[in-house]
Specification:
Two copies of one chain form a homodimer. With 227 residues, chain A is of the alpha+beta class. Chain A folds into two domains: 130 residues, Jelly Rolls, CATH 2.60.120; 81 residues, Arc Repressor Mutant, subunit A (Orthogonal Bundle). The N and C termini of chain A lie far apart (53 Å). Chains A and B meet through α5 of A and α5 of B. The first copy, chain A, binds a DNA duplex (30 and 30 nucleotides) through α8.
Chain lengths: 227, 227
DNA sequence: CGGCTTATTGAAATGCTTCAAAACCAGTGG
DNA sequence: CCACTGGTTTTGAAGCATTTCAATAAGCCG
């Protein structure tokens, strides 16, 4: 059974795994990877920790973040199932930021050597470019938009991202605490609560413990487009 | 004369040029590049514009930025002589952001085809990783530090960057208007003025039209380290 | 000198944070 | 079934950071 995990993996058709399988084979990949499961809130990678493995989030949600000396946490990106973390690990011996599980997660660790990496340069270049583009969006977001616009835009993005992965219903999962959103968008948890309450009060979204629903796309978009 | 520009170029020993010369030769590089000069405030690249050329800032200062539909400008990064823009051009047909000259500039355009790019993958991977790291720093900066800390940190960084390039004196150049700094750090030009005045009043820095001087490193560092 | 761009200053308004208290919620053990 | 707990969200009030608007000053160029 263990020998056929890759065969049946949802993620084998896209991204890193697809490239590796194309270059080599499913068996080759299977031999170089192992799955690890971790409970919610576990730190998956600490800055400075040398690692030979590039990882793929098989199931659950995770996030990358920087822990500042004053205890403050700045989230860099949100990882959904299928996302790779981190392309940088293939270029650098260690990273300067952390990864943590937001929910229970299953993570696939893949061991690649220099030649393996060389064989998938095309894919890696593209993945690195995506990483840059995503971070640029965050800079624009943090630098030039107000809290309301950031949260509205985030919910729209997340909705689109989940639908692109095949989600269909009205309700979408949201496995983040309000303080996670606060750390993501550089605002206080209190203010996150207020903004979300306001969006709800305006009938733009509906919110439940671990899920949300967009009630009025154009309205929410209008808020997201405000300065 | 034109045939020997690369030979005498200050930047030939580092970065992209060094990699290309190592892989091929100075003559090879010379044949694929041409220099362009542009006055201050010129737009060097507009988003969406297809370009076969990767560029190196030979002289002057420039910046990358996103122009938002509401007219607001978010600067992404500051380019100093020797900096490449942009690694992303080698992975994507077009970019989503702009480059503009802050001063009069000389820009070296280099035409590379797919094989040329493949030959310097090692260098490109590293450069892309650097790009990511720099943007992550900006996210942390914008997300979790106050205006004072951002400006203090910027001056310290810039000072270090210029000294790493060989600058020695007390005074360092600063070819940015206050509204450039505002667009860079997500604050209003008025507030930039106030913060700089305050830093000056605290005897931490000295400021003149196109240059600055750090008067008290530990003090400025202390401000930069504040939340 | 006049006209342009950039920087400074003040006053008022807005956005956001902090602190503190209360409400809510899920799980635990009685 | 209830009370208790710990983690999370909501709410209010006060204070701080930053923006906006508007007016003035300073610097530079022709």
């Amino acid at each position: 059974m263990a020998g056929s995990e890759c065969e049946h993996c949802v993620h084998r058709r896209r991204g890193l795994c697809a490239s590796l399988i194309e270059q080599q084979s499913v068996q080759w990949l299977e031999a170089r990877r192992r799955t690890r499961e971790d409970p919610a809130r576990t730190v998956l990678y600490e800055p400075g920790q040398p690692s030979q493995h590039v990882r793929i989030l098989k199931a659950g949600w995770a996030a990358s973040f920087v822990l500042r000396s004053d205890g403050r946490r700045q989230m860099l990106s949100l990882l959904l199932p299928g996302d790779i973390f981190s392309v940088l690990m293939l270029h650098r011996p260690t990273l300067t930021f952390s990864f943590a599980a937001l929910t229970d997660v299953a993570v696939c660790h893949i061991a690649l050597n220099r030649e393996d990496v060389a064989a998938i340069q095309d894919f890696l270049g593209g993945a690195c470019a995506e990483e840059v583009t995503g971070l640029q969006r965050r800079v624009v977001d943090l630098g030039s938009r107000k809290a309301q616009a950031r949260l509205a835009g985030f919910l729209l993005d997340l909705d689109a991202r989940l639908r692109a992965q095949g989600a269909t219903g009205d309700w979408q999962p949201l496995f983040m605490r309000q303080y996670d959103l606060a750390d993501m968008f550089g605002m206080s948890a209190v203010h996150v609560s207020r903004v979300l309450s306001w969006l709800r009060h305006e009938q733009l979204i509906d919110l439940r413990p671990e899920s949300f629903r967009i009630l009025h796309y154009p309205g929410l978009q209008a808020v997201a487009d405000r300065i």
